[in-house]
């Protein structure tokens, strides 16, 4: 009976750990490159506000040209859960950094885009 209690406690502990870690795992898996995601509005805003945002995306480059459409990738807004907000000069976008990846989202966090 003692062994059954220890095994049951271990099962409960493992279940609690899995439930605790599941939202973080979901945020990472759901993160970048989800098929069907559209971020064209944010891409246009980044291109439009490029001179305010180029130091955020390309801090080491003094004269970074406006990005081309093939240089963008869509990011799930759920990726902002673990993101660090960055100060942005753009009034219409909120920008974030996660593990070295930089991206910006619209003010309602419906669309996000980053640069390759």
Structure characteristics:
about 120 residues; alpha+beta; five-stranded antiparallel sheet; 3 helices; globular; disordered N terminus
Short description:
The protein has 116 residues and is α+β, with helices and mostly antiparallel strands.
What does this structure look like?
- The chain has 116 residues and is of the alpha+beta class.
- The protein has one domain (31-115).
- Helix content is 39%, strand content 20%.
- The protein has three helices and five strands.
- It has a five-stranded antiparallel sheet with strand order 1-5-4-3-2, with helices on one face.
- The chain is globular and about 30 Å long.
- The termini are far apart.
Mean residue pLDDT:
76
The secondary structure category is alpha+beta
Q: Can you tell me the overall shape?
A: globular
Largest sheet: 5 strands, antiparallel
Using only C-alpha atoms, the radius of gyration works out to: 20 Å
DSSP summary, beta strand count:
5
Number of helices: 3
Spatially, the strands of the biggest sheet line up as 1-5-4-3-2
Query: What proportion of the residues form beta strands (DSSP E)?
Result: 15-25%
Q: What is the element string, with H for helices and E for strands?
A: HHHEEEEE
């Amino acid at each position: 009976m003692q062994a059954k209690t220890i095994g049951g406690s271990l099962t409960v502990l493992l279940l609690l750990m899995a439930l605790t870690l599941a939202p973080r795992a979901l945020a990472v898996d759901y993160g970048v490159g989800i098929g069907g995601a559209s971020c064209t509005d944010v891409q246009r805003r980044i291109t439009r506000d490029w001179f305010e945002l180029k130091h955020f995306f390309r801090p080491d480059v003094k004269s970074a040209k406006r990005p081309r459409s093939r240089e963008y990738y869509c990011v799930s807004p759920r990726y902002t859960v673990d993101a660090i907000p960055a100060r942005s000069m753009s009034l219409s976008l909120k920008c974030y950094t996660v593990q070295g990846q930089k991206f910006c989202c619209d003010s309602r966090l419906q669309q996000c885009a980053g640069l390759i």
